[in-house]
Every structure is written in structure tokens, then in C-alpha cells.
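sry for the spam today, last one i promise. C-alpha cells for design, 164 residues
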């Protein structure tokens, strides 16, 4: 079984994939799951319309509250970023994906069905043309496209006895 942080990453994907609206907009070959075993299929070169949109869930900042010798619980926060790239300059496809992601995550329950997740917060993001996602820019995905970022902070609590 993967470690708790990887389990959290995978638990964030589950409601997205299970949401019929999100799944209809973003097919299996358009989701970049960085927790998958084996090689990760990162698109190379220019992406064609059949490959778009592309959605990645990226792992971001990790913070840990100081853990004293007498502490009974370790408290941590792991951030994730849901990154979306679409074809062309039409905003409707981008907004539909963002909305379905919001619906799916809002209905996922406060703990993502994991005993060590205390709660999670969906917060700010950014919509930009072209350069919002450096990875897509580096591989030369498209000359002109929308990109969007949605940040998710997950609060994790581990009982000291479980830290073995």
C-alpha cells in the first residue's frame, strides 16, 4: 500500500474520474496521473486537438507543524495543484472542466475517505494564456491555449503510534 501522501494524491483523482461530467470532458488519455506505477506518459511535442484538454494533478508544498517528543499527533499540510490546458482561446471548455472539478471535489466528502485526512480546502487558482503551466510550455504543447490552475490544500493528521 502506498504511503499516506500518495494515497491522498490518488484519493483526489477518484472523485474527478467518478464524476460523469468531468470524465466526459477529460478522457483517460488526457489525465496525467503522477502516482501511476511504471512509466508516466508525459506528452511530447505539440499536442493535437484529440489530446486536449490535458489535466495534471501536481504535488506542491508540504509543511509539518513542529513535532515535539510528547506530541500525540503529527499535523501536516500537503498542497496539490490541478492543472488544465485546453485547445485554443475559447473559455467555455476550460470553465466546464473547472466547474466539474469543483463539483466533484465539493461532493467528495471532508476526508476523501481516508482516516488521516482531517479536511481539505479548494482555493485560489489562475487562468492564463500560454504560460500558466511551465511543463506544458517546456514541451511546446500549443502556441496559443488557455491554462488553469486550481490549488487544493489537504490537512493530514497522523497519530504518533501510527508513525512506525
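last one done:
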Amino acid at each position: 500500500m502506498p504511503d499516506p501522501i500518495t494515497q491522498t494524491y490518488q484519493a483526489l483523482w477518484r472523485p474527478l474520474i467518478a464524476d460523469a461530467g468531468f470524465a466526459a470532458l477529460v478522457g483517460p488519455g488526457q489525465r496525467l496521473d503522477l502516482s501511476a506505477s511504471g512509466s508516466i506518459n508525459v506528452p511530447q511535442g505539440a499536442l493535437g486537438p484529440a489530446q486536449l484538454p490535458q489535466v495534471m494533478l501536481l504535488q506542491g508544498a508540504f509543511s509539518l507543524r513542529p513535532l515535539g517528543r510528547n506530541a500525540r499527533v503529527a499535523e501536516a499540510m500537503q498542497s496539490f495543484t490541478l492543472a488544465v490546458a485546453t485547445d485554443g482561446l475559447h473559455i467555455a471548455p476550460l470553465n466546464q472542466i473547472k466547474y466539474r472539478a469543483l463539483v466533484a471535489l465539493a461532493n467528495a466528502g471532508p476526508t476523501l475517505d481516508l482516516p488521516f485526512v482531517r479536511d481539505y480546502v479548494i482555493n485560489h487558482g489562475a487562468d492564463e494564456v500560454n504560460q500558466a503551466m511551465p511543463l506544458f510550455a517546456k514541451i511546446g504543447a500549443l502556441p496559443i491555449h488557455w491554462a488553469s490552475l486550481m490549488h487544493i490544500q489537504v490537512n493530514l493528521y497522523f497519530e504518533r503510534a501510527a508513525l512506525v
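Helices lie at 4-18, 20-25, 91-106, 134-138. ok im logging off now
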